[in-house]
Each structure stands twice: as structure tokens, then as C-alpha cells.
């Protein structure tokens, strides 16, 4: 798999930003079939940094309902795989460079 197939997008939230500053951990949404070694190699080649540790988790899908004029609409958010990547001391990833 190519690095662009493995890394879907970075997760930008308040909790993810707090982990970036304090623990040097960056959160990414990754392909479900990717393992830790593939994620590590993809981030090292894509961003040119040294990865120390990779933690992965599968975030389960959730049921969502909303009320409209036509009545209740029910749906489901899809599940995805999240990777928390710890990088080496003194290195950073600029996730806001391409915005």
C-alpha cells in the first residue's frame, strides 16, 4: 500500500491538539486494513520524521437520529481506525501547512 492509501486524514480536535503539545502524539484516521508497521513507515516517508510508537484503535460506529418535517430520520456513522503516533523528541509535524 502507498502512504496516501494508508493515511486518510489527520484528526484535528482540542483533545488531539492537547496531546500534540504535551505528549508529542498525533492522531490520524487510517485505513482499516493497515497495521502498525505500515502506519509507521507511511508517516516517516510522508512527513520525514522519526516515529517512536504507534497505538491503534477502532472507533465503533454510532447510531444517529434527527427530527425533520418528514419525521425521524435514522442513520449510522461508519466505524474507522484511529492511530496515535508518538514522534521523537524535538520533532514536530505541521498539520496546518496545507490549509
Give the overall form.
elongated
In percent, how helical is the residue content?
25-40%
Q: Give a quick account of the main beta sheet: strands, pairing sense, barrel closure.
A: 4 strands, antiparallel
- Average pLDDT works out at 93
Span of the ends, CA to CA = 26 Å
Strand proportion: 35-45%
State the secondary-structure class: alpha+beta
SSE order and pairing:
Layout: H1 3-6, E1 7-10, H2 14-23, E2 25-30, H3 36-47, E3 51-59, E4 63-68, E5 71-76, E6 80-87
Antiparallel strand pairs: 1-2, 2-6, 3-6, 4-5
Describe what you observe in this structure.
The chain has helices at 3-6, 14-23, 36-47, and strands spanning 7-10, 25-30, 51-59, 63-68, 71-76, 80-87. With 99 residues, it is of the alpha+beta class. Strands 1-2-6-3 form a 4-stranded antiparallel β-sheet. Strand 4 (63-68) and strand 5 (71-76) form a beta hairpin.
List keywords for this structure.
single chain, 99 residues, alpha+beta, 4-stranded antiparallel β-sheet, two-stranded antiparallel sheet, 3 helices, elongated
Q: Short description, anyone?
A:
The protein is an alpha+beta fold and 99 residues long. The chain contains three helices and six strands, in the order H-E-H-E-H-E-E-E-E.
Amino acid at each position: 500500500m502507498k502512504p496516501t492509501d494508508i493515511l486518510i486524514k489527520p484528526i484535528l480536535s482540542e483533545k488531539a491538539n492537547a496531546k500534540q503539545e504535551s505528549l508529542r502524539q498525533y492522531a490520524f484516521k487510517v485505513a482499516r486494513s493497515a497495521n502498525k508497521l505500515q502506519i509507521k513507515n507511511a508517516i516517516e516517508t510522508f512527513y520525514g520524521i522519526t516515529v517512536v510508537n504507534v497505538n491503534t484503535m477502532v472507533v465503533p460506529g454510532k447510531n444517529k437520529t434527527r427530527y425533520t418535517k418528514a419525521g425521524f430520520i435514522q442513520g449510522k456513522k461508519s466505524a474507522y481506525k484511529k492511530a496515535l503516533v508518538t514522534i521523537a523528541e524535538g520533532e514536530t509535524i505541521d498539520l496546518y501547512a496545507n490549509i
